[in-house]
Write a structure and sequence with these properties.
- With about 400 residues, the chain is of the alpha/beta class.
- The chain folds into two domains: about 200 residues, Rossmann fold; about 100 residues, no CATH class.
- The strands form two sheets. A seven-stranded mixed sheet has the order 6-3-2-1-8-10-9, sandwiched between helices. The chain has a three-stranded mixed sheet with strand order 5-4-7.
- Helix 8 packs across helix 9 and helix 11 packs parallel to helix 14.
- It is globular, with a radius of gyration of 23 Å.
C-alpha cells in the first residue's frame, strides 16, 4: 500500500500528535520499556508536558528482571528524573521461555527463587514489589494481561476518566506493528489513525508510528536525549541499528539475541544461565539449521514418517506440555478436515505427511511436517499452525500448567 507524504518532518509531526494528546486528555501516561523507541517517545513527551505545565509525567515500566545492567541503570536514571513519576513494577510476571521444553515458562521476580535472581531487587522509592499494591494483580499474571489491567486501574485512580497511554511503536519495525496502526476495524479517538481504544477508558496513542530507526538515532544525537547505553555496546559488537532489540531474552523471537548477553555483559550472562533453563542451549543452537530448533531444513529420522516422528516428539515432552500441543494439533487437524470436505482449498485432498515446502511455508496445506516443525521450534503458541496468542488462550494455558506444577 502506497504512503502519503506530508510537507512536514517526522519530528514536527510527532510533536503535533503529542500536543494533541495532552490537549485532548487530562490524564496521560507513558508505556516505557527502556528501549530506543520508548526512550525517544519519553523524551518527546517530557518536552510537550513541560510546555503544557503537565509535570510530573506518569510513566509505567514493567521490569522483567532478566535484563541488561545497562537497562537497569537507564531505568534508574528515569526514576530519578525530577519530571517523572515512575511506576517501576518489579512483580512476579509469567513469561515465555522458548529455549526449553522442560521450563517453557518462567516467572520473573518469583520470591521463592530470590537466591537465583539475575539482579537484586532495585532499592528505590518508586519500585512496586508488593503483590498487593494493585488490586487486579495475581502472581503469575501474563505481561499482556497486566498492561491493559494497569490502564484501567490508572483510569480508576482518576475517577474512571478517559486516559491516554503513549506507546512507542513504529510501523516500519514489523508487519504486526504496521497492522496495529493500519487496522480499519479498531475504535479510534476522533478518527485519528494513530490511536486505538484498548480498554473501556484508555486509548493507546502512537505518536512515533511513522518514524524510522534512523529518525530515532538522529533525534537522540541532535537533541542530546538520554537513552539506554546498551545500544552503544551493540553497535561496537557489529549489530545493525535495524537488528537491535531489547526485550526479555527468552521469547520466541527474542531468543535470537541471546548470544549478545554473553558478549556485552558476561556477568549478567552467567546469571541468566543459572536463572532460566535452556539459556546456554539457546545461545548455542538458536541459529543452527536443522532439527535442534526446527530451523529451515528439518530432517526426518530414518524409518519414521512425519506423523510418527510427531508422536515420538510428543512422547518425550513433559506431560503438561504434551497435553497442550496435542490439543492444538487436534484443533488444527479438525479445522483442516472440515475445510477439505468443504473444498475450501482446491487440490488439497487430505492431511499430508509432507507437501511442497513452499506451500507448507505459505500455510496453504496441512501436513505432519508442519506439526513437527512447530514441536521442534518449541513454538508454544503454535503460530506455525496459524494459531495466535490471546487473553483467553493465556488463561487456558496457565490453568493447564498449574494442573501439573505448583506455580
Amino acid at each position: 500500500m502506497s504512503k502519503t507524504y506530508l510537507d512536514l518532518d517526522v519530528y514536527s509531526a510527532a510533536r503535533q500528535r503529542m500536543e494533541r494528546v495532552f490537549d485532548d486528555f487530562r490524564h496521560v501516561y507513558v508505556a516505557f520499556s527502556a528501549g530506543k523507541d520508548s526512550g525517544a517517545m519519553l523524551n518527546l513527551a517530557l518536552e510537550v508536558a513541560r510546555e503544557r505545565g503537565r509535570l510530573p509525567l506518569d510513566v509505567l515500566i514493567l521490569d522483567l528482571e532478566a535484563q541488561y545492567q545497562h537497562t537497569a541503570d537507564y531505568i534508574r536514571r528515569v526514576a530519578d528524573h525530577p519530571d517523572v513519576h515512575l511506576y517501576w513494577c518489579c512483580l512476579p510476571i509469567h513469561l515465555r521461555n522458548a529455549v526449553s521444553q522442560i521450563q517453557p515458562h518462567w516467572v520473573c521476580w518469583h520470591p521463592d527463587e530470590k537466591d537465583r535472581w539475575v539482579r537484586a531487587m532495585p532499592q528505590h522509592p518508586r519500585v512496586i514489589a508488593d503483590e498487593s499494591f494493585f488490586p487486579f494483580f495475581r502472581r503469575g499474571m501474563e505481561f499482556e494481561e497486566f498492561v491493559p489491567a494497569f490502564g484501567e486501574w490508572y483510569s480508576q485512580q482518576h475517577g474512571f476518566d478517559r486516559c491516554a497511554c503513549l506507546v512507542g511503536i513504529r510501523s516500519a519495525e514489523s508487519l504486526n506493528r504496521y497492522r496495529t496502526i493500519k487496522s480499519e476495524t479498531k475504535t479510534r479517538w476522533q478518527d485519528l489513525g494513530w490511536t486505538t481504544l484498548t480498554t473501556d477508558h484508555v486509548y493507546n496513542c502512537y505518536p512515533l508510528y511513522d518514524w524510522t530507526v534512523e529518525d530515532i538515532w538522529t533525534a537522540n544525537g541532535r537533541f542530546g536525549w538520554d537513552y539506554n547505553r546498551i545500544y552503544d555496546l551493540m553497535h561496537l559488537a557489529g549489530v545493525s541499528i535495524h537488528e537491535m532489540r531489547l526485550c526479555q531474552p527468552f521469547g520466541d523471537d527474542q531468543r535470537q539475541g541471546l548470544w549478545l548477553f554473553k558478549i556485552l555483559e558476561p556477568e549478567t550472562w552467567s546469571k541468566l544461565v543459572n536463572r532460566v533453563a535452556g539459556a546456554n542451549f539457546g545461545n548455542r543452537h538458536v541459529e543452527e539449521i536443522g532439527n535442534v530448533l526446527g530451523n529451515i531444513r528439518v530432517r526426518l529420522p530414518e524409518g519414521y514418517t512425519w506423523k510418527r516422528y510427531a508422536k515420538f516428539l510428543l512422547a518425550t515432552m513433559p506431560p503438561y506440555l504434551a497435553e497442550h500441543y496435542r490439543k492444538k494439533i487436534a484443533k488444527f487437524l479438525k479445522v483442516w478436515r472440515k475445510d477439505i470436505r468443504a473444498h475450501k482449498y482446491p487440490g488439497v485432498e487430505r492431511i499430508y505427511d509432507a507437501a511442497d515446502p513452499r506451500i507448507e511455508a505459505a500455510r496453504k496445506v496441512p501436513s505432519w511436517r508442519r506439526i513437527c516443525k512447530v514441536l521442534l521450534k518449541n513454538d508454544y503458541w503454535c503460530k506455525g499452525l496459524s494459531f495466535s496468542q490471546t487473553t483467553r488462550e493465556m488463561d487456558r494455558q496457565l490453568a493447564l500448567i498449574t494442573k501439573y506444577l505448583d506455580l
